[in-house]
Design brief:
alpha+beta; 7-stranded mixed beta sheet; about 20% strand
Length: about 850
């Protein structure tokens, strides 16, 4: 038999789907809708096989739902703004737009090679004015609604590049490109008021039932709602004079008796005032400002501080005061920028206290601990217990002590109980060229003037200099200067651009009506398709992108754009595709195709030098452990790659890519093709009735066919793709066994039914092979338009059941017995079972309890 010709077949069916507009959709109120969406890619270059897992998963879901009768929207587009385009433009001396659209062209061709069922007529790129003019209008509406505002905030500043750096661009306190020590500066930035929706975003998480628990928890933690107390400490100077009061926010007022210090953020106003006359404090603050602004950078830095000489008066202990430090681990952006440290019950505080030899006073006694012998060692105690060493709080539980301490503080007039959030408003300003211009202007006095809506979009200038340090738009000689529409005077454009999360926070709405010109999307279309029924993407987007999109949808609802709150009803976070890594004798990474095995040893293919085999890691271009998409499609076909990506591992777990795996998938698809093209037993004509007296191997195989249909349907519904693949393999084996029993009555009819079912079950996974096989089976329809097969319930139900047999409550045997058999028959079979006879060993039976189709319990 000639092997399945995947090259001709895949190209043929891709052309047919495109010509027929098979996957193009419109709203249809008569059909249930299903919107499946994979997180759209950044056009960074070429795709490798590791990128294809989430697109393949989404395609299987889309094709499956389509076969079940849903009106399926499955679009694709490009998250096309971003800093990498600027960097590539500088490196390659091309315009970011040219680099971006060339990558879109290449990656689009790669995706088409995989036969993905996208409605390509809805393709979008966020860097086009046709797209971003609408988000400029949205921003102006947010500004009118009080959801956008401008304020000064701390940023990472590269003094050589003269630009703001993202936290990820600060490496060991230095700019990633210049290598210069990074500074913190306060700059005017635009923000979106996401905190106005904090409670709503938090409360709605419980309703996201089809989201992974891990992601829901991550969102809850990021919003970080806490109840605590805002407490004011009176301050005295070294000479006993009153100093500026310091307000602290704490969620643990119960631990105040264990406090041993106060700590201020390096950017706290009190710290700044003290630094004016304390050079060593000023130097320490400058050093802290080089750490970067990310919480991760601050948390991982060594805990250090400077004693200010100030003392904080303890609110509960008369005559007692605490030293006040400026510490590098206190964030100005969280709470009040000041904390009290209780080393016994906070690890960060304990590390600091040990370093500066401060008291460590335990105030929470663990359950069952000895109050006389309990002490804090190298780890703080953060669990439950009762209060000790705490005056009027002694003996209370932690929760009781929190409540009582809060009441006392309020009664003393020292503070108030309040709710705090970890969530901060979203800073959307970026000092970059390749982004959406922020549509505002400024008068000479700093007054903000929104760009009139009839002047949108504000587009980027083409003649841009990316070589000169600083903000490219601010450096442009003419672009930023405009005439005021009201006074005729000169205005200055905002030269910052939007954070690229801005574009990805509403692109799923644009897909519902990508040709809409008046607004970003047609309201009726959006309300037909939204929410996205199944969203698919990496766990790395579990917080920011998903949280921003949830906020953005609510903000648009508040501005009258649509009546939808949650954008994504279901979420799947797929695992990575992994591959071994390789290094040459010089420690340099090597591509898999540069390595071969000779006499059991890995060597370089070109020079024969030894190669070190590294661990399995996520496919990444930086470590060169990638497998080219075109390489696999060219050697084995898109369907083979798709089949392997769905096999072996649940979708939420990592999957190892191997040459053995791809070869095995290829062999299986050829087995399927043989069943269709050259069956050992000629298949009956399509539609031939199944004999009523079917029995023996033919009946058992027909049962297998319908059980497989039922099980695969359930597996795909639950996204158990690897289980579905295993069942399909079992079905192919069963059909092959029936071929071997050629003389079995009814075999040609059952084989016809079974092979057609096999092809239909494979259609979402290996669509090109399925289309070609369907045609070879004599059908003149496209399998993509065929309804999903439905199992015959009478064939799915087993005639026999497995019943457990217990003696005096212990399992001793199992019985295969006819379903719903009479109780006397079941009892007799149980007592006659050899294992039960041995167990009873002549003991008299007092009672036999039969639970139909489940269990027999013998009391002896």
């Amino acid at each position: 038999m000639a092997r399945y010709n995947f090259r001709e077949t895949e190209r043929k069916w891709q052309e047919i789907w495109a010509a027929r507009r098979t996957f193009a959709v419109t709203e249809d109120a008569a059909r249930p809708k299903y919107y499946v969406l994979e997180m759209f890619p950044y056009p960074s270059g070429r795709l490798h096989i590791g990128h294809m897992r989430n697109y393949t998963i989404g395609d299987v879901v889309a094709r499956f739902k389509r076969a079940q009768g849903f009106n399926v929207l499955h679009p694709m587009g490009w998250d096309a703004f971003g800093l990498p385009a600027e960097n590539a433009a500088i490196a390659n001396r091309v315009h970011p737009r040219s680099w971006t659209f060339e990558n879109i062209r290449v990656m689009g061709e790669q995706l088409r090679l995989m036969g993905l069922a996208y409605d390509w007529e809805r393709e979008i790129a966020t860097c086009t004015p046709e797209y971003y003019k609408h988000e400029q209008k949205m921003f102006l509406d947010f500004l009118k609604a009080g959801l956008a505002y401008r304020k000064e905030s701390w940023v990472n500043w590269d003094p050589v590049e003269n630009t703001v750096l993202a936290n990820e661009q600060v490496i060991d306190g230095r700019g990633w490109r210049s290598g210069a020590p990074v500074e913190k500066r306060r700059l005017a930035q635009w923000f979106l008021r996401i905190t106005a929706f904090a409670d709503e975003l938090l409360d709605a998480i419980d309703g996201l039932e089809r989201w992974p628990d891990k992601v829901r928890l991550m969102q809850e933690n990021w919003i970080g709602k806490s109840t605590g107390v805002r407490l004011t400490f009176d301050i005295t100077t070294a000479d006993g004079e009153p100093g500026p009061a310091v307000e602290v926010y704490t969620t643990r007022p119960d631990t105040l008796f264990g406090a041993s210090f106060l700590a201020l953020s390096p950017n706290h106003p009190v710290a700044g005032t003290l630094a004016e006359t304390r050079p060593e404090l000023g130097a320490f603050i400058a050093e802290c400002n080089r750490i970067g602004t990310s919480e991760e950078a601050i948390e991982t830095a060594e805990k250090r501080g400077v004693d200010t000489g100030l003392r904080a008066v303890h609110p509960f202990i008369d005559g007692h005061s605490l030293p006040v430090y400026v510490a590098n681990f206190v964030l100005m952006e969280y709470g009040t920028g000041a904390i009290f440290g209780c080393p016994g019950h906070d690890q960060r505080d304990l590390d600091f206290a040990r370093k500066y030899d401060l008291p460590v006073i335990p105030v929470v006694l663990p359950p069952d601990a000895d109050p006389d012998g309990f002490a804090i060692g190298i780890e703080a105690y953060t669990g439950p217990g009762r209060m000790i060493n705490s005056g009027f709080l002694d003996g209370m539980t932690v929760d009781e002590a929190k409540a009582e301490a809060g009441r006392r503080i309020e009664a003393m007039g020292r503070g108030t109980r309040t709710t705090q959030y970890r969530l901060r408003d979203w800073g959307v300003s970026r000092q970059r060229y390749w982004g959406c211009p922020i549509p505002v202007m400024y008068r000479p006095d700093g007054t903000v003037v929104p760009v009139p809506e009839d002047q949108l979009p504000v587009t980027l200038p083409d003649d841009i200099d990316l070589e000169t340090p600083g903000n490219p738009l601010a450096n442009h000689p003419t672009w930023k200067y405009v005439t005021c529409p009201e006074t005729g005077g000169q205005l200055i454009r905002e030269t910052d651009t939007f954070d690229t999360f801005f574009e990805s926070s509403w692109y799923f709405l644009r897909f519902t009506s990508p040709d809409s010109t008046d607004t970003g999307f047609d309201r009726s279309a959006a309300e037909y398709w939204m929410p996205v029924d199944q969203y698919i993407g990496g766990i790395e987007h579990a917080v920011l992108h998903l949280l921003y999109a949830r906020f953005f949808t609510r903000a648009l609802k508040g501005c009258g754009y649509l009546d939808v709150s949650e954008p994504f009803a279901g979420l799947m976070t797929q695992g990575m595709v992994t591959h071994p890594t390789y290094r040459d004798a010089d420690g340099q990474w090597m591509y898999p195709e540069e390595v071969e095995e000779r006499d059991g040893v890995l060597v370089g293919r070109s020079d024969g030098r030894p190669v070190a085999l590294g661990r399995l890691e996520k496919m990444s271009k930086s470590k060169k452990n990638v497998v080219g998409l075109e390489e696999i499609v060219g050697s084995h076909g898109a369907d083979t790659a798709r089949f392997l990506l769905l096999s072996d591992s649940p979708p939420e777990r990592d999957l190892e890519w191997s040459s053995a795996g791809i070869d095995g998938a290829w062999r299986f698809l050829n087995r399927v093709w043989r069943l269709v093209e050259e069956p050992a037993v000629p298949l009956a004509a399509s539609g031939t009735p199944v004999p009523a007296d079917l029995a023996g191997p033919a009946l058992e195989t027909r049962r297998l066919v319908h059980k497989t249909i039922a099980a695969v349907t359930d597996d795909l519904t639950r996204f158990h793709f690897n289980k579905a693949v295993a069942r399909i393999r079992e079905l192919a084996t069963g059909l092959g066994e029936l071929e071997a029993a050629a003389e079995a009555p009814g075999a040609p009819v059952v084989l016809r039914e079974g092979v057609e079912a096999l092809v239909q079950l494979l259609a979402p996974m290996t669509p090109h092979l399925a289309e070609e096989a369907w045609q070879a089976l004599g059908h003149d329809t496209v399998i993509a338009d065929q309804p999903w097969p439905v199992a015959d319930a009478s064939l799915v139900a087993d005639d026999t059941v497995t019943v457990a047999v217990q003696v005096n409550g212990k399992l001793r045997a199992t019985l295969a017995i006819a379903r719903d058999a009479p109780q006397a028959t079941v009892e007799a079979a149980a007592l006659a079972d050899p294992a039960i006879v041995r167990t009873l060993d002549g003991k008299p039976v007092k009672k036999v309890i039969v639970v139909p189709n489940r269990i027999v319990n013998i009391v002896a």
